[in-house]
Every structure is written in structure tokens, then in C-alpha cells.
Design a protein that fits this description.
With 431 residues, this protein is mainly β. Helices cover 2% and strands 43% of the residues. The strands form eight sheets. Strands 17, 20, 21, 22, 25 and 26 form a six-stranded mixed beta sheet that branches. The chain is elongated, with a radius of gyration of 33 Å. The mean pLDDT is 95.
């Protein structure tokens, strides 16, 4: 051991269980020091006395007082059960039964009274503050308190509370709490550990954020048909990722809802960057507005044209058409379809059917819901369509059964037409 510090009243501290073993120390940068004490560290304990020590000469023990160290003050804070934090020549303490306090440093010593403090006082065991900043600006003091709340304060004025996780409890509630824990800040996010999870907080997308709406199969932007599947791309659309697990589809998923001209749209999938949604059959043709609401807050909106049909052919790996062969295998170069067999191609955007199905509901197998005036070509050659309609067991997915014409072995472009409107083109393999 090279050096040490022991409080002058160590015996009384030990006898009263108000020792300094409840917390640690914070090592301060050289900017906080002075010519006589360039290297400082700060700590406190259950007595509520704060100590400012010279790391090069810690002071050892002295009877009667702590005058041999840089600074010592009793009852400056509530009992401390965690380290202080430092930012811009201020040290932040959060004692039990006390406010969060900022005590300034000047010429290598503390300036009392505290420069600012929070309006909230924190029950046992107080809290452990963490500071985030952009260099020396935009300082935020973060803390977790025993009520299970994450709080954020303006580091330059702790009377200003910027945020707490119960302001929108449905979206942000932290849940359980583990005493003595501190939030961690990295890459623009705040990480808070609980008894059963890791909660991650970040900036929400600004209202009115730009959204892109496209056919979920073809990727064609700005146009869709009633009943079809669309994808909405953006940022901050949802605060988590979730997929629908059953039919009928729900109109809220991961606390996100989508309205198309005010009509609630069922969701297949929700994530921060993408939503997959069914256009309600009830939406009328013409120009409409798609609005995304996340945690009761409008994230953004976009214009969309609703047409009677807007066919899109789904694709799979390497852009191959999403086709199932007559024997039930997935069509591919290694599993081609035979000539004169029937393949089932999967699309969206065919609009109204002869046996209507409720928006969000799975189509039945009996009776089938058919679409009229559907044709197909493979390699430009007409291929007979033996069925076109909603795929049984799914919502918004259309199935077109096609008789494969005589063609040379290999990949050939497939295109499907609804009322003369063409889909995108994707290859199908034939042997």
C-alpha cells in the first residue's frame, strides 16, 4: 500500500453503521484540479459527508478533523449508496432521501451550496447518476430510481427534468428495478437493466417523418388495390418488432396502428423500419392518405393511389417467382415444373372477389373467392389460368394456378395480368 485516507471519525462511523463502504470514488480529470492539487478524486458515504482527495497525497488519518485533505463537509448530501458522476467541473450526487445535487468545482475545491438540485427527492437507496453529452455541451444526467423510473435532467440546471419513463407508461414504462444500478449510455441510446430485461431507450422519429408505401410483392410505389398487401418503410415506425400470429389480423401490433383514409388497416408485421399492412377492402378508389401512429403519436403519413387492381408477383431467393409446383415443391432451378403441369403463383393486388372476405380475415377454401379476367404468360407465350383468387388460409394473398406450356428447359419469365394490368416479371423454372 502506497497511500490511504481514513476519516477522522472512523470509529463513530463504524459504530453507527454510517461508514464510507456504501459507495466508491470517482476519479476526476485534470481540468477539475488546481496547481497545488492537480489530480483529484471524490467520494462520500452513509454519513452524507463528501470528501475531495488529492490522489498524489491522500492524507492518511488525522485526529480531530479532515483538514489535511482538500475538502470535507458533513451533511452535504443524503447517505450515498453509489458513485457520484462528473461533467464540466460539476460533481453530481444522489443521496438517499435527498435530491440529485450538482456541486461545482473551482480552483480545485468544491463551491457550496450546490449550484442546482432536482425537485424530486429519492427514497432509499437514492440513485447512481450517469452523464451523457456531446463534448462539453448538451449534458444530460440519467438515473434509475427505486420506483422503477428512468429520469433525465438538464446537467446545467437539475431543476429542469427533461424526461421520465412514466410520462408515456404504455410505451416507456421500465418495469422492475434493481437497487444500486446505473443506466449506461452508448451510441445515442440509454440502456437500463431491470430484474428481468434490458430496456433500451432512444430518440423517436420526428412527427411527419418521410414514409414510403409500396406493393409488398412488386415493390411498385404509390399504388395499391383494396385488399392487397403493402409495405411501409421509414424510421421509428415501431419501438419493437412483432409479427401477427393468427387470423383475423389485428389493427394494432407492437403499439403501432395504420389508418388509410381513416380506416384501420390490419398488420402482418411491425418493426422500427418497416410495416406490412393489408389495405382494407372498404377503401375507395382514388387518392388516399396513409397515416402511421406509434404509441398514440403520429409518426408520419404518405399519399397512396387506390386502383381497382395493382397486381404484384411475390418473389423468393434470387428474385425467383414465388411458385409452388404441382407436387407441392417450391419451384427453383433444382426443382423445375414439368410442361403440362399446374403451378401456383402467389401475388397480391387483385382487388375485389366474387365471395367477399372480411378485411384481415383468412380466405376460406369453401367457397373459394375468385377473381375474373386474369391471364398469364410464360416467355411471352399464353399460359392457361385454371384458377385465380384469394389463397385459402391467408389474408390479402392471391393464388393463380397456371398450366405450364411446352417450353425448352430452363428459367422463363412469368407475368400475370389482372384486367389487362401487368404484374412485375420474375423467372419460373421449367424442365
Amino acid at each position: 500500500m502506497l497511500d490511504y485516507f481514513t476519516p477522522f471519525n472512523v470509529t463513530a462511523l463504524n459504530d453507527g453503521d454510517v461508514d464510507v463502504g456504501s459507495s466508491g470514488v470517482a476519479l476526476l480529470p485534470d481540468e477539475a484540479g488546481s496547481a497545488s492539487h492537480p489530480h483529484l478524486m471524490v467520494g462520500a458515504g452513509k454519513e452524507g459527508r463528501i470528501y475531495l482527495l488529492d490522489r498524489d497525497n491522500m492524507g492518511k488519518w488525522q485526529a480531530g478533523s479532515d483538514s489535511q485533505i482538500v475538502f470535507s463537509m458533513a451533511k452535504a448530501i443524503g447517505p450515498l449508496f453509489g458513485n457520484p458522476a462528473y461533467f464540466n467541473k460539476n460533481v453530481y450526487f444522489c443521496g438517499s432521501g435527498d435530491s440529485l445535487k450538482a456541486i461545482a468545482l473551482s480552483n480545485g475545491t468544491f463551491v457550496m451550496p450546490p449550484g442546482s438540485k432536482s425537485q424530486t427527492e429519492f427514497d432509499y437507496p437514492g440513485c447512481v447518476p450517469t452523464v451523457s453529452a456531446s463534448g462539453t455541451s448538451n449534458g444530460i444526467v440519467w438515473l434509475l430510481e427505486a420506483s422503477g423510473t428512468l429520469r433525465a435532467y438538464d446537467a446545467s440546471n437539475l431543476a429542469t427534468e427533461l424526461y421520465d419513463s412514466n410520462q408515456n407508461s404504455a410505451r416507456d414504462a421500465l418495469g422492475s428495478y434493481v437497487k444500486f444500478t446505473a443506466p449506461t449510455v452508448a451510441n445515442g441510446k440509454v440502456y437500463a437493466g431491470t430484474q428481468n430485461s434490458l430496456a433500451v431507450y432512444g430518440l423517436l422519429a420526428a412527427s411527419g417523418a418521410s414514409l414510403t408505401v409500396a406493393n409488398a410483392a412488386s415493390g411498385q410505389r404509390g399504388i395499391a388495390a383494396p385488399g392487397s398487401i403493402i409495405s411501409i418503410a421509414g424510421s421509428g415506425l415501431a419501438q419493437s418488432t412483432s409479427s401477427a400470429t393468427s387470423y383475423p389480423l389485428l389493427t394494432t401490433l407492437a403499439d403501432v396502428s395504420v389508418g388509410i383514409n381513416g380506416i384501420a388497416a390490419p398488420l402482418y408485421f411491425a418493426s422500427p423500419g418497416q410495416l406490412n399492412v393489408q389495405v382494407p377492402f372498404e377503401v375507395s378508389a382514388g387518392s388516399v392518405t396513409v397515416t402511421v401512429t406509434s404509441a398514440s403519436r403520429v409518426v408520419g403519413s404518405a399519399a397512396l393511389t387506390i386502383a381497382s387492381v395493382a397486381p404484384g408477383l411475390f418473389t423468393i431467393e434470387a428474385g425467383h417467382a414465388a411458385v409452388v409446383n404441382q407436387d407441392g415443391t417450391i419451384n427453383s432451378a433444382s426443382q423445375p415444373a414439368g410442361a403440362a403441369t399446374i403451378i401456383a403463383a402467389y401475388l397480391t393486388g387483385f382487388g375485389a372477389v366474387d365471395n367477399p372476405v372480411a378485411t384481415g380475415a383468412a380466405a376460406p377454401a369453401d367457397p373459394l373467392s375468385r377473381v375474373m379476367n386474369v391471364t398469364a404468360t410464360i416467355e411471352g407465350q399464353t399460359a392457361s389460368v385454371v384458377f385465380a383468387g384469394l389463397a385459402p388460409g391467408f389474408a390479402g394473398l392471391y393464388q393463380v394456378n397456371i398450366l405450364v406450356p411446352q417450353l425448352p428447359p430452363g428459367d422463363h419469365p412469368l407475368q400475370v395480368f389482372a384486367g389487362g394490368v401487368p404484374s412485375n416479371i420474375a423467372p419460373v423454372s421449367i424442365r
